[in-house]
Each structure stands twice: as structure tokens, then as C-alpha cells.
Amino acid sequence: AFIALRQLLDHAAEHGYGVPAFNVNNMEQIHAIMQAAEATASPVILQASAGARKYAGEPYLRHLVLAALEAHPDIPVVLHQDHGASPSVCQQAIRSGFTSVMMDGSLMPDQKTPASYDYNVEVSRRVVDAAHAVGVSVEGELGCLGSLETGEAGEEDGVGAGGKLSREELLTDPEQARAFVEATGVDALAIAIGTSHGAYKFSRQPTGDILAIERIAEIHERLPNTHLVMHGSSSVPQEWLEVIREYGGEIPTTYGVPVEEIQRGIAHGVRKVNIDTDIRLAMTGAMRKAFAQARSEFDPRQALKAATAAAKGVCVERFEAFGCAGQA
Ligand code: G3H
Ligand code: 13P
Ligand code: ZN
């Protein structure tokens, strides 16, 4: 059944676990996540970007999610708009049946140009007013996602924000976070603590200080009732990179956020953990391998089945690692 993000994350906070929020674009990804949730008795956050709605088409995406609910009546499901670029994108999502929307007012509607604090407050508050009136939850974002290793802002929806930033500029300010939530009433807040979007997060094997974990605690202290969200949380599994390379892919050396770091984040107050890249890497690796190993095969279902199984494996691991397993 559908539930609102607020409801699910309140439960997660009460019981001290984190919920992976997986991006979905097609049936195979939804199959994989729901099978993993069923296998581990986990609640689910399916999130769709503007790009996902464009790829699948809004009615297809909506009906695929409705099909998931019908096939798995006992699994609580949040359908969340990822990185809403404007209040009107969030309105469309609400009309389309989403139970949660992200208003990403940290960037202007082009989702490249950093926005002012006042703009962010204004658009986020407007979305909260409209969403709460119909029982839909809202996630806001405050801060500029980017790697503490390089000082470079990460990709927001595939487009580099560009420019070198100092450590302070790359971290969400705790006092500003408190004021932002007071002014907007968002249910969840995405914070910048050193993660970035995409596969290229860190060029060296990360050590324990790759994220500003203490910053999470500082923000959580001031916002005990607002659920913190970690974007750019893919771990970039080295074993899938190796499969991709072995079967003809070209992905340079790169590292993601170690699962243990995410676990530390959850212990300090993170409740929603956004993951897209890991599923992309697993599916791509599995498809490359399937095509290469059965060269006369031309039924695409063989490769797609392998991709679904690979994505399911990633999801099971994250549900278990984040303490989400058994909470449905
Ligand atoms: O944060 C971005 C997500 O990974 C979605 O990416 O815009 O290519 O669907 P997308
Ligand atoms: P990754 O690119 O690390 O999977 O992050 C996805 C994300 O934050 C979607 O909003
Ligand atoms: Zn994101």
C-alpha cells in the first residue's frame, strides 16, 4: 500500500534505521526493488526523476508503480519525486499520485545554477503548502552537493555545477538548516556532507573521513523532527566495475561511498539514502556479461533477467545494511 514519506521516516527514526530510496525508470528496476523488499520484508521508497518521467512517460511510470502495489500488497511503498526543479514539477507529481515530492530549491530551475537562500525558502514553502494540504510529504535541499576530496560540486541530474568550493561551502550550515526548516516546514532535508551524484565520487579508495559525519550530528541535534537525506549515496561496487570492464565497458578508476560510512550516517540521523548509480552499474554489468556469454541469443529477456537479478542483489544488500530489513 502507498504511504507518505513522513509516515515511513517517522517509523525509521523511532526504530533507528535508514531507508534506501532507489531511482526507477522501467519495469525491471521496479521488479528488482520489489523482489528485494519482499525477500527482506522491507518498506520501499521508489523515486522517479524528471528524466525518468520523460523516459518512461508519466502514465507508464504511474501504472508500473500501481502494478507493484497490486503484486506486493503487504509492502509499504512511497512514490517520491526526485529533484523537483520547480513548484510546477512538484504539482504535476502530486496530481500524478506521488506521495512525496522533493523541491530542490538549492538550484535554480535549470538545476545547474546555485540558488539563493531566499529563493530556496520561497519555492520550498510554496510546495509544502500545496503538498501538505493533500497529505503529501516534502523533501527540501539545503547546501551544495560536492566532493570534499576534489572541492568540485557534483552532478545534479547529470549536469556538473562546476567550480571549486571550500570545505565550508561544501557542507550544509547547521544553523541555516534549522532556520530553513522553520521557514518552510519540510518533512525531510537533503544535506551536503561530502557526497556527490554519479559514478565519479572519489578517485582514491575512501578512508573513514571522506564524509563530514560530525556535521550530520550537528544538524540532527537542531532538527530532531526533520528527517535527513543523503543524496549521492551509491557505493560504486568494484566487483560490478570489473564485470563491466571484463565485457568491453570502459569505466576509469573510481570509488563511491562505502556502506560503512552510510551506516555511520544513519547512526547520526540520516533516514533516507538515495541510490541510483549502483543499480545502473549492476544492470549494465549483468547485461554486458549476458550478451557476451550467449552470443547467439537474441531474446532480450535473457539479458534483462540477468539485469533484474543483479539489481535485486544490490537492493537486498542495502536493505540489510541500513537496518530496513524486517521493518515492513
Ligand atoms: O540525482 C539524479 C538521479 O541519479 C537521477 O538521474 O536525471 O538521469 O534520471 P536522471
Ligand atoms: P547516486 O548517483 O550516488 O546513486 O545518487 C543518486 C541520487 O542522489 C538521486 O537523487
Ligand atoms: Zn540526488
UniProtKB/TrEMBL annotation:
Instruction: Please give the superkingdom of this protein's source.
Output: Bacteria
Lyase recorded as keyword: yes
User: Which BP terms in the Gene Ontology apply to this protein?
Assistant: glycolytic process
Q: Which InterPro entries match?
A: Aldolase_TIM, Class_II_FBP_aldolase, FBA_II, Fruct_bisP_Calv
Please tell me whether the keyword Mitochondrion is annotated for this protein.
Answer: no
Entry's cofactor comment: One is catalytic and the other provides a structural contribution.
Which Gene3D superfamilies would you find in this protein's record?
Answer: Aldolase class I (3.20.20.70)
Q: What class of enzyme is it?
A: lyase
Q: Which UniProt keywords apply?
A: Glycolysis, Lyase, Metal-binding, Zinc
Report which reactions are catalysed by this protein.
beta-D-fructose 1,6-bisphosphate = D-glyceraldehyde 3-phosphate + dihydroxyacetone phosphate
Q: Hey, which pathway is this one from? A: Carbohydrate degradation; glycolysis; D-glyceraldehyde 3-phosphate and glycerone phosphate from D-glucose: step 4/4
Active site (catalytic residues) = D82 (proton donor)
| EC number of this enzyme | 4.1.2.13
Any one Gene Ontology molecular-function term assigned to this protein's record: fructose-bisphosphate aldolase activity
Give me the residues that bind dihydroxyacetone phosphate, please.
G198, G232, S233, S234, N274, I275, D276, T277
Name the cofactor(s) required for activity, per the record. Answer: Zn(2+)
Positions bound to Zn(2+) 2: D104, E141
Q: Which residues bind Zn(2+) 1?
A: H83, H197, H231
Q: Which family does it belong to?
A: Belongs to the class II fructose-bisphosphate aldolase family.
**UniProt function note:** Catalyzes the aldol condensation of dihydroxyacetone phosphate (DHAP or glycerone-phosphate) with glyceraldehyde 3-phosphate (G3P) to form fructose 1,6-bisphosphate (FBP) in gluconeogenesis and the reverse reaction in glycolysis.
Q: What is this protein called?
A: Fructose-1,6-bisphosphate aldolase
